[in-house]
Amino acid sequence: MKSIRILLFLSNVLLIGLSAKTRAQNSDQNPITKIAFGSCNKQDVPQPLWNPIINDRPDLWIWMGDNIYGDSPIMDTLRAKYARQNAHPDYARLRAEVPIVGIWDDHDYGRNDAGKHYAQKKESRDLMFDFLGVPAEAPERNREGGYSAHIFGEEGEQVKVILLDARYFRDTLERVNRVYQPNPEGGILGDAQWKWLEKELRESPARINLIVSGIQFLPTEHAYEKWANFPNERERLLDVIASSSVQNPILLSGDRHIAEIMQLRDARFPKGIYEITSSGLTHTWSGAAEEANQFRVGELIAKLNYGLATIDWKNQEITFEIKGEGGAVYATQKIPLQ
């Protein structure tokens, strides 16, 4: 048994190294037309969506949080659960074929709904980076937090993925009768991440900029974790995106065990800014069917799902789909590139 465990460990190390190599080779070089993304993945239950995701032939996979359900402050436990996910044959095939980037939410952070006071956050961050195949020399390894940015594609047709860490620096929330109370003075990103984000947006050469968070950006009405629990921080984020003049910003999020497409229109975004939530690779929340959301476009989806973005560079538009088992399409949204 010991020799088998050693072989499995060495196999996982090799796969991580191959994943990091693939990421490095694809960044800034090859054309990019399809991006798949998703969240909320239990490593020890059936995972029926990897095959349809692979069949879509994406150029990139983005993890958006709860990539495993670690839920433990014990790093050996998290490490074993990441290893179990890496050993899943369909996910291993995706890793071998597609570059992968991502960010965490709370269950892979180690404690449900935790923030900056979580004592094991640095050790947990390093395990997440190992899982994602982040190279030892990557700049994100040498700073606090799990945030990062990646550019893919050729000049003039580039996509930038900005992965925000909504855990490591997040202030405390109070919960009353299962409802999170607003914390107007609290923050999510922390000073260093804010400065980094402003620079990444202001200096981005990309035609499309995907801004990713484990928790939802736009919704204000539901009782759970969201940027609106820190209302000043949410407004600051929208202000920073608008004032940066970054090209075609689009928000992506996970966490909710549902999928939905949203749009905000206001003075900052007269043509609208979209958010696509895709959550529930292995499980969903059927009780959300009646949840209100003033920003929702179309229907709330409470089925196993993943997101797919298909970029039509010739016609200058990007099509987002929420998809499920067998490649079923549950929602579609075309967004013209400005």
From TrEMBL:
Gene3D superfamilies: PhoD-like phosphatase. Residues 53-292 form the PhoD-like phosphatase metallophosphatase domain. The keyword Signal applies. Keywords: Signal. Residues 1-24 form the signal peptide. InterPro entries: Metallo-depent_PP-like, PhoD-like_MPP, PhoD-like_sf. It holds the Pfam family PhoD. SUPFAM superfamilies: Metallo-dependent phosphatases. This is Phosphodiesterase/alkaline phosphatase D-like protein.
